[in-house]
TrEMBL record:
Residues 197-290 form the Ribosomal RNA methyltransferase FtsJ domain. Catalyzes the 2'-O-methylation at nucleotide C2498 in 23S rRNA. This is Ribosomal RNA large subunit methyltransferase M. Its EC number is 2.1.1.186. Belongs to the class I-like SAM-binding methyltransferase superfamily. RNA methyltransferase RlmE family. RlmM subfamily. It is found in: Cytoplasm. Residues 100-171 form the Ribosomal RNA large subunit methyltransferase M THUMP-like domain. It comes from the Bacteria. Keywords: Cytoplasm, Methyltransferase, rRNA processing, S-adenosyl-L-methionine, Transferase. S-adenosyl-L-methionine binds at S199, S232, P233, G234, G235, D251, D271, D287. It catalyses: cytidine(2498) in 23S rRNA + S-adenosyl-L-methionine = 2'-O-methylcytidine(2498) in 23S rRNA + S-adenosyl-L-homocysteine + H(+).
């Protein structure tokens, strides 16, 4: 790549692409998902990704068709339209290179003004040290945009600068109606001291990411009844009790004493795979360490038999062919419900608090 001069770095050649954030180590699965979506609309795009980087750039002529797919993607925490990228950024004037890339896009159909601007970096070991630089650059970027009258709080578009190194960055755009509302696609949660285990954050994040405000209000009402399979010591049960649900906690292991004293928890020492409810409940939650297909079959049975209306559960993924395993498990659920004459709505994400697993929300539609 040639420079115009020895002092001024050139932006990366223009290509139509999307930028997806993901869990480090899952770039391949994220790329597979995007490629499958692209093929579904007649595309033949390709991914640029480095294992462990925490992001994937996906080059395609179908960016508009794919850009709104964030909520339907399992492995992407965020999905952005790339405006351009630059390397060899000068340490003392990064915005001097990046702002022209942003402004040049105004003539190409992108918004003239932004509701906000975020400077962030992927969630990887190599880029976490960029956090102080991101904060400082964010303040400077907002000031520069205000000076140019490019900030409009009523705009549907948010500007993103993603630093992948101290001297490299993507400029990208997010339609706020179609993208994650958290920097990096990660909701920042504080561990509640009263909760008996950190696994409670998995369910809290799942309820925040997989359900919207209205759904949480309508589907998680005080007095509803739930079953927690594999409940010990009670991290997921704690989230339900905090919302005043009555919970049957099924596990051969011990439960937190404070939870049991709440009057909202019945602890049943039993195998979660063998337990059957005496009468239907509203919610089933499940975070058991077991083969993902077996868990999918169990949840499918609960939904197909009408033993619950809503379910949130984790699928622990194998070391290889993780994307394929996810698709197989979701197919198991859909097919089982179809055989029972029911249709299931599924939403799945690899959450920030997940590791080698994904979290799924299911309801009989």
């Amino acid at each position: 790549m040639q420079r115009a001069s020895d002092d001024m770095p050139m932006p990366h050649p223009e290509t139509a692409s999307l930028l997806a954030y993901c869990r480090p180590g899952f770039e391949g699965e994220c790329a597979q998902e995007l490629a499958a979506r692209d093929a579904g609309v007649g595309g033949s795009g390709f991914a640029r990704a480095t294992r462990g980087s925490g992001f994937v750039e996906f080059v395609t002529d179908h960016t508009e068709a794919l850009a709104g797919a964030w909520q339907d993607l399992v492995f992407a925490r965020q999905l952005l339209r790339v405006l351009g990228s630059a390397r060899d950024l000068p340490a003392r004037d990064r915005l001097g290179v990046l702002l022209p890339i942003i402004e040049a896009e105004h003539a190409n159909g992108m918004p003239q003004r932004w509701c906000d601007a975020w400077v962030e970096s992927p969630d990887s070991d190599a880029t976490r040290e960029l956090a102080p630089l991101c904060r400082g650059l964010n303040a400077a970027l907002i000031a520069a945009l205000k000076k140019k009258q490019l900030i409009d709080r009523g705009s549907r578009w948010r500007l993103h600068l993603c630093l992948t190194a101290t001297d490299a960055a993507f400029a990208a755009a997010a339609n706020i109606d179609e993208t994650a509302p958290w920097p990096g696609g990660i909701p920042r949660l504080k561990f509640p001291r009263a909760a008996p285990s950190r696994s409670t954050l998995k369910l809290e994040e799942a309820l925040l990411v997989l359900l919207d405000d209205d759904e949480r209000e309508r589907w998680l009402k005080s007095g509803m009844r739930a079953v927690d399979l594999g409940a010990s010591p009670g991290g997921w049960t704690w989230q339900l009790v905090a919302r005043s649900l009555h919970v049957i906690a099924v596990d051969n292991g011990p439960m937190d004493a404070t939870l049991l004293a709440s009057g909202l928890v019945d602890h049943l020492r039993a195998d979660g795979f063998r337990y059957r409810p005496q009468k239907p409940v509203d919610w089933l939650v499940c975070d058991m360490v077991e083969q993902p297909r077996r868990v999918a079959e169990l949840i499918a049975q609960w939904l197909a038999q009408g033993w619950c209306r809503y379910a949130i559960f984790n699928l622990k993924l194998p070391m290889k062919k993780r994307h394929d395993e996810v698709q197989l498990c979701l197919t198991i659920l859909r097919d089982a419900l179809a055989d029972a004459g029911r249709r299931v709505e599924l939403r799945a994400k690899q959450l920030y608090h997940d590791r080698e697993e994904i979290t799924v929300f299911a309801r009989v539609a």
